[in-house]
Design brief:
Helix content is 0%, strand content 51%. The strands form two sheets. Strands 2, 4, 5, 6, 9, 10 and 11 form a seven-stranded mixed beta sheet that branches. It has a four-stranded antiparallel beta sheet with strand order 1-3-8-7, with no helix packed on it. A hairpin with a 6-residue loop joins strand 4 and strand 5.
Length: 118
Protein backbone atom coordinates (compact mmCIF):
# COMPACT_ATOMS: atom_id res chain seq x y z
CA UNK A 1 0.00 0.00 0.00
CA UNK A 2 1.46 3.34 -1.05
CA UNK A 3 1.95 6.18 1.37
CA UNK A 4 2.94 9.83 1.12
CA UNK A 5 4.09 11.87 4.11
CA UNK A 6 4.53 15.63 3.83
CA UNK A 7 6.58 17.87 6.08
CA UNK A 8 8.09 21.34 6.14
CA UNK A 9 5.03 23.51 6.56
CA UNK A 10 4.87 26.34 9.05
CA UNK A 11 4.04 29.97 9.71
CA UNK A 12 6.08 32.66 7.98
CA UNK A 13 5.82 36.30 6.98
CA UNK A 14 5.27 37.53 3.45
CA UNK A 15 8.46 37.42 1.40
CA UNK A 16 9.96 34.52 3.31
CA UNK A 17 10.58 30.97 2.10
CA UNK A 18 9.67 27.41 3.00
CA UNK A 19 10.68 24.04 1.60
CA UNK A 20 8.16 21.23 1.66
CA UNK A 21 9.10 17.57 1.44
CA UNK A 22 7.03 14.53 0.58
CA UNK A 23 8.44 11.08 1.25
CA UNK A 24 6.90 8.18 -0.65
CA UNK A 25 6.80 4.49 0.17
CA UNK A 26 5.07 1.35 -1.03
CA UNK A 27 5.17 1.99 -4.78
CA UNK A 28 7.69 2.55 -7.59
CA UNK A 29 8.27 6.23 -6.95
CA UNK A 30 10.55 6.85 -9.92
CA UNK A 31 7.78 5.99 -12.40
CA UNK A 32 5.12 8.23 -10.95
CA UNK A 33 4.06 11.75 -11.82
CA UNK A 34 4.48 13.67 -8.56
CA UNK A 35 2.41 16.76 -7.86
CA UNK A 36 1.69 19.33 -5.21
CA UNK A 37 -1.83 20.64 -4.68
CA UNK A 38 -3.15 23.08 -2.11
CA UNK A 39 -6.46 23.78 -0.46
CA UNK A 40 -7.31 26.99 1.34
CA UNK A 41 -10.24 27.25 3.79
CA UNK A 42 -13.52 27.43 1.91
CA UNK A 43 -11.89 26.86 -1.46
CA UNK A 44 -11.49 23.92 -3.78
CA UNK A 45 -8.28 21.99 -4.04
CA UNK A 46 -6.05 23.49 -6.72
CA UNK A 47 -3.02 22.34 -8.67
CA UNK A 48 0.32 23.91 -7.76
CA UNK A 49 3.05 22.03 -9.63
CA UNK A 50 4.04 18.66 -11.01
CA UNK A 51 7.16 16.82 -12.05
CA UNK A 52 7.12 13.67 -14.16
CA UNK A 53 9.64 10.89 -13.85
CA UNK A 54 11.14 12.28 -17.05
CA UNK A 55 10.32 15.54 -18.75
CA UNK A 56 9.14 19.04 -18.09
CA UNK A 57 7.82 20.43 -14.85
CA UNK A 58 4.64 22.48 -14.83
CA UNK A 59 3.35 25.21 -12.50
CA UNK A 60 0.15 27.07 -11.92
CA UNK A 61 0.24 30.70 -13.00
CA UNK A 62 -0.14 31.78 -9.36
CA UNK A 63 3.20 30.28 -8.32
CA UNK A 64 5.25 30.36 -11.51
CA UNK A 65 8.58 32.06 -10.89
CA UNK A 66 8.30 31.75 -7.10
CA UNK A 67 7.99 27.99 -6.48
CA UNK A 68 10.23 25.18 -7.72
CA UNK A 69 9.42 21.47 -7.68
CA UNK A 70 12.13 18.83 -7.69
CA UNK A 71 12.50 15.15 -6.95
CA UNK A 72 15.14 12.77 -5.67
CA UNK A 73 14.37 9.28 -6.92
CA UNK A 74 17.10 7.80 -4.71
CA UNK A 75 15.34 9.15 -1.62
CA UNK A 76 11.77 8.64 -2.90
CA UNK A 77 11.16 12.29 -2.14
CA UNK A 78 9.61 15.24 -3.93
CA UNK A 79 10.24 18.82 -2.80
CA UNK A 80 8.53 22.15 -3.22
CA UNK A 81 10.75 25.18 -2.69
CA UNK A 82 8.52 28.17 -2.06
CA UNK A 83 10.09 31.63 -2.23
CA UNK A 84 8.63 35.10 -1.90
CA UNK A 85 5.57 33.70 -0.16
CA UNK A 86 2.37 35.72 -0.15
CA UNK A 87 -0.61 35.64 2.24
CA UNK A 88 -2.69 34.13 -0.58
CA UNK A 89 -0.37 31.11 -0.53
CA UNK A 90 -1.85 30.15 2.85
CA UNK A 91 -3.30 26.65 2.52
CA UNK A 92 -2.85 23.00 3.31
CA UNK A 93 -0.35 21.63 0.81
CA UNK A 94 -0.88 18.06 -0.34
CA UNK A 95 1.39 15.68 -2.19
CA UNK A 96 -0.02 13.48 -4.94
CA UNK A 97 1.37 10.48 -6.82
CA UNK A 98 -0.21 9.37 -10.08
CA UNK A 99 0.73 6.48 -12.33
CA UNK A 100 1.00 7.91 -15.87
CA UNK A 101 -0.48 4.73 -17.34
CA UNK A 102 -3.55 5.02 -15.15
CA UNK A 103 -3.30 1.34 -14.27
CA UNK A 104 -2.06 1.66 -10.69
CA UNK A 105 -3.50 3.40 -7.68
CA UNK A 106 -3.24 7.13 -7.08
CA UNK A 107 -2.01 8.33 -3.70
CA UNK A 108 -2.52 11.44 -1.57
CA UNK A 109 -0.72 12.61 1.53
CA UNK A 110 -2.41 14.09 4.60
CA UNK A 111 -1.08 17.56 3.91
CA UNK A 112 1.06 20.14 5.67
CA UNK A 113 -0.18 23.58 6.71
CA UNK A 114 1.46 26.70 5.30
CA UNK A 115 0.44 30.03 6.80
CA UNK A 116 1.75 33.32 5.45
CA UNK A 117 1.06 36.53 7.32
CA UNK A 118 1.41 40.02 5.92
Amino acid sequence: QGQLVESGGGSVHAGESLRLSCVASGFTFSRYLMSWFRQAPGKEREFVAHIPWFGTTRYSDDVKGRFAISRDNEKNTVYLQMDNLKPEDTAVYLCNAKDPSGEAAEYWGQGTQVTVSS
